[in-house]
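Inverse folding, one chain.
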């Protein structure tokens, strides 16, 4: 399914010479001694982030319109028309190369045709793009070749904290300089500092990732001295966080609160749209999946060649899927049709409907399939897995490749690691503590949920308080989850799936995603497993889990409920006592999903 290719990313002097030459052309100012003319200047800054491959405006099956870069372009062009293109900067904060059929196809299937992403960036006239963690997750063969074309188009990935191990220099450029609204603008870019906790080491071989907060003030001062910009923009693939310096993957507010010399801080990663202004800086986060464009305005007053006043304004612009640019659609029709042809091919048959949200209520065919596939990979004895699609449905009948993106939307690999029985139990205690509440009466909620405004969609309603992709259940064992008890006392493992004894002192081979094995979600850490040295306890590695599912379907021809639900293979688990758990779950599931 994947075309094989060799790629020696650390021995490519021609590539890095090309990058260096192109970046020098981008960053060298025309005159470091020029002075601003007195008067008023107005700069418009537009930002996107976490687009996750939502390039095309149509689904591949059924043709329903969807929010996309095509639709975002309508709003971007509207701002450029209103204020003048020469007064507008457009930047992105990363996670561009993962999340959709299109990214998968051009990352891993058709690796010979030009990758569409650089051309999309050029077509939309992006000024700068930061690299995200999911961009690095595609691996060197993908992001290295994409970077070559981005450099040729004048808009390279920026990632000043991705440092080469062989020479200590940035793997991707730190910054770029543009001229807009009569102003010299330096744009610095950073990727997420926590990448090592999520993806396999071979995907970022030869690179280390530094905390942004440790570099950004020094970098700003260095660039300011070298370039003498009038405006400084930082685009970073890092979430807002709490602003208290405690969350490595969420450094935006840490920087917003403390770093001097930034005019606009563009951030992402958390998929939570947010804009904010202060006296000297504005924050822009457009959310994710082409739902919003973030828009910032900066007004500057200059007297005697010095900036004497700055004024900021920000807004979120909702994207209407029906506003897709028809000219852009035609410009990329060939790429869209290639992706659609590949992802609509029939691959097998499904004998039962699969509903991903059923995972929250207990055992279901969707998670049974995940566990069955994982347990088929030697030497796995136990599987731990979470639902990765929040509310998707695949109807019984013919399966097409497109359905695999509902079954498994990420490019995670499968690891088999050694864990003791105690660690398996503690792991499940940590997982269910994110998932459920302790019930003291039949009227209580069972799911960890609340009525609020969803920070991602900004809709009001009932929503889970934790990320459901951290709701891991286990297979290969028999156990119960007591909803009347707190963490540490909920999980009772009675036996292995085949009826043999489960031994807490014994070491088991446990199948899990590479995301989890690398430390994602902190569940392994809470179970006492050192994910920083995961290689020492890893007994097997397999390719992407979506590929394993694909191979399973090709081998068997179909997905059958009875086969994937065999209790002798996957075991059994349930919430107890049922008299409280069942009605409470029915109420909570209705609150979460009725009408959606």
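Residues assigned per position:
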């Amino acid at each position: 399914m994947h075309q094989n290719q060799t790629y020696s990313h650390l021995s490519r002097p021609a590539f890095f010479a090309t990058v260096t030459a192109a970046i020098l052309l981008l960053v060298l100012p025309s005159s470091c001694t020029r002075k601003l003319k007195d008067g008023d200047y107005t700069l418009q800054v537009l930002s996107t982030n976490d687009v996750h491959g939502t390039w095309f405006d149509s689904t591949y099956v059924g043709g329903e319109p969807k929010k996309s870069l095509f639709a975002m372009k309508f709003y971007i062009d509207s701002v450029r028309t209103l204020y003048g293109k020469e007064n507008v900067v457009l930047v992105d904060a990363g996670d561009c190369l993962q999340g959709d059929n299109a990214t998968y196809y051009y990352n891993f299937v058709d690796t010979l045709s030009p990758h569409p992403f650089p051309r999309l960036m050029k077509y939309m006239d992006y000024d700068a793009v930061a690299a995200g963690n999911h961009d690095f997750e595609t691996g060197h063969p993908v992001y290295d070749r994409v970077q070559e074309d981005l450099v040729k188009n004048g808009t390279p990935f920026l990632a000043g904290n991705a440092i080469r191990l062989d020479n200590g220099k940035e793997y991707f450029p730190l910054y770029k300089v543009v001229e807009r609204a009569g102003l010299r603008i330096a744009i610095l870019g950073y990727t997420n500092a926590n990448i090592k906790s999520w993806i396999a080491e071979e995907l970022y071989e030869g690179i280390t990732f530094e905390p942004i907060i440790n570099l950004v003030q020094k970098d700003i001062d260095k660039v300011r001295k070298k370039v003498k910009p009038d405006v400084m923009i930082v685009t970073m693939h890092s979430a807002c966080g709490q602003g208290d310096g405690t969350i490595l993957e969420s450094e935006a507010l840490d920087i917003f609160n403390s770093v001097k010399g930034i005019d606009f801080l563009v951030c992402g990663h958390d998929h939570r749209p947010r804009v904010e202004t202060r006296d000297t800086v504005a924050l822009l986060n457009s959310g994710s999946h082409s739902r919003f464009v973030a828009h910032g305005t900066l007004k500057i007053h200059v007297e005697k060649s010095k900036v004497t006043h700055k004024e900021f304004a920000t807004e979120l612009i909702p994207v209407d899927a029906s506003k897709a640019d028809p000219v852009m659609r035609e410009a990329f029709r060939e790429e869209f049709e290639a992706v659609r042809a590949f992802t609509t091919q029939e691959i097998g048959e499904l004998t039962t409907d699969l509903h991903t949200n059923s995972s929250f209520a207990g055992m279901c065919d969707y998670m049974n399939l995940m566990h069955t596939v994982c347990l088929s990979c030697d030497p796995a004895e136990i599987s731990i897995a979470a639902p990765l699609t929040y509310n998707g449905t695949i109807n019984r009948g013919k399966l097409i490749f497109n359905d695999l993106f509902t079954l498994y939307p990420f490019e995670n690999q499968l690891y088999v690691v050694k864990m003791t029985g105690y660690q398996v139990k503690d792991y499940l205690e940590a997982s269910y503590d994110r998932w459920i509440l302790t019930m003291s009466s039949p009227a209580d909620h069972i799911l960890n949920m609340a009525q609020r405004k969803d920070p991602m969609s900004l809709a009001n309603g009932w929503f889970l308080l934790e990320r459901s992709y951290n709701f891991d259940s286990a297979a290969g064992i028999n156990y119960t989850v007591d909803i009347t008890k707190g963490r540490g006392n909920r999980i009772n493992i009675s036996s292995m799936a085949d009826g043999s004894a489960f031994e807490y002192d014994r070491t088991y081979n446990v199948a899990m995603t590479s995301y989890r094995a690398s430390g994602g979600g902190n569940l392994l850490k809470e179970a006492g497993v050192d994910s920083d040295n995961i290689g020492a306890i890893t007994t097997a590695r397999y390719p992407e889990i979506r590929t394993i599912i694909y191979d399973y379907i090709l081998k068997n021809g179909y997905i059958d409920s009875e086969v994937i639900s065999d209790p002798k293979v996957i075991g059994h688990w349930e919430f107890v006592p049922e008299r409280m758990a069942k009605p409470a779950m029915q109420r909570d599931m209705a609150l979460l999903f009725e009408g959606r």
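The chain has 19 helices and 29 strands. The radius of gyration is 25 Å.
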